[in-house]
Prior knowledge:
This protein has helices at about 1-5, 15-35, 50-65, 110-115, 115-120, 170-175, 180-185, 185-210, 250-260, 295-315, 335-345, 355-365, 375-385, 440-455, 465-475, 485-495; strands at about 75-90, 90-100, 100-110, 130-140, 145-155, 210-215, 220, 230-235, 240-245, 260-270, 280-290, 320, 325, 335, 395-400, 420-425, 430-435, 480-485. The chain is an alpha+beta fold. The chain folds into two domains: about 1-160, CATH 2.40.50.140; about 185-215 and about 250-330 and about 395-500, Bira Bifunctional Protein, Domain 2 (BirA Bifunctional Protein, domain 2). Strand 16 and strand 17 form a beta hairpin. Helix 8 crosses helix 10 and helix 8 packs across helix 16. The radius of gyration is 30 Å and the shape is elongated.
Amino acid sequence: MEEQDFNAAENQPEDERESNALMLARRQKLEEWRQRGVDPFGHKFERTHLAADAVAEYERFEQEAGGQAVGAEGPEVRAAGRVMAIRGHGKATFAHLQDVSGRIQIYAKVDVLGEQPYQAFSTLDLGDIVGVTGRLFRTHRGEITVAVQQFELLSKSLRPLPEKWHGLKDVDTRYRQRYVDLIVNPEVKQVFVARSRILHAVRGFLAKRSFLEVDTPTLHAIAGGANARPFITHHNTLDMNLYLRIAPELYLKRLIVGGFDRVFELGKNFRNEGISIKHNPEFTMLELYQAYANYQDMMEITEQLIAWVAQEVLGATKLTYLDQAIDLTPPWTRISMLDAITKYAKVDLRETNSDEEARALAGKAGLKVDPKWDRGHMINELFEQYVEPGLIQPTFVTDYPVEISPLARRKSSDPRLTDRFEAFIYGREMANGFSELNDPIDQKERFQKQVEARARGDEEAHMMDEDYIRALEYGMPPTGGLGVGIDRLVMLLTNSPSIRDVILFPHMRPRD
């Protein structure tokens, strides 16, 4: 039955038929291992060395012996990994084992292992996971190698790896089958090692500044903290809809009300929006809040944080991202949103006070104007279309319209604007920060305007959050808040063109 299952579809593409034939052959080898009395999905194996450690061990041995000694028998090691190359030479076989640290060559001989163990070794397939015990030596070609004295099959691979010389190049398949991508494209693993180091560096920077890491809810009764369309789920016992959080902001600011002066959270946010090279529905954000601070302090933290992380991970604050040299060294350029529009879009909205005036000027600038947009939204659309793509070097854009900033404090000098900034690098938003709105009366009025926008069909508008208003009524100190997109930061520091390259398992449309 099994053979029929693998070979029944005669109309399959040739590569699929070949793959099925190889899988059948591996199933047959699986039974042969069992007939030898070997569990092909083995047991614990005590390693003494990773591949890289074994290489370093032999190099130390050579130095102590007075230099390179081809063929000299070195220390004994126990190593384990996946077979990534294998070639037989009569009564001897070379193979390469790959583990988390890299690869090391192994060498098996019939007169060392014995006839039956060597015959079993020679049936190994690419992808099989084995453990070996043996002594290190250097071949005549100069490669440090383990002379195998014993070996154990630890896990039989039932699927062939992608074709040896081409590897796994199809981008769609790489994202869907990240486990195979990590096996056959070792450089991909380094991106995620760097991601871990970046997160560690972020936490280290904030710890030095006395920020407390906290956890807040992921399931929210009210979708809040940002303008975005949420994912909706249902709690059966309570018989109520809940929202996957679009931002932890309102809970973190409740903690500021409660008396914590400096808090941050590194965690997942979820937004039911489009997918692109910059957007994934599930993404990682850093949000932090500091009492008795303002948005100027948050800009200082942003540039210092990103420069610190780059120095910790890359050893420099200057880097190349795709086709551009980027200098992260503080201080970064600062420009107001309206000044940026005047500079890049050649239209001056600084003195406009009505929606009609702004609409007319935006139209003259070539913007296709939606009649529902107010002055603030038109300013934002002009900025996104004409300014944002040109902000290559690190730049803070400040003073956003109040209409698109429902949680930011109004500017004392111009109540049409807010004490808000966004940081841009390579034309992409990297961070967003404000002087937080702590006036409960103003906040409720802004929420009400958002509720009215929702009633008109804006699914991204903020909901009313009465409990958050109640918290503000107890009094929140002047506070600076900051959000940093961790995935985009990882993209920048690993020179990765797409957000899918820095998320281990990005969301994909089902193939079916």
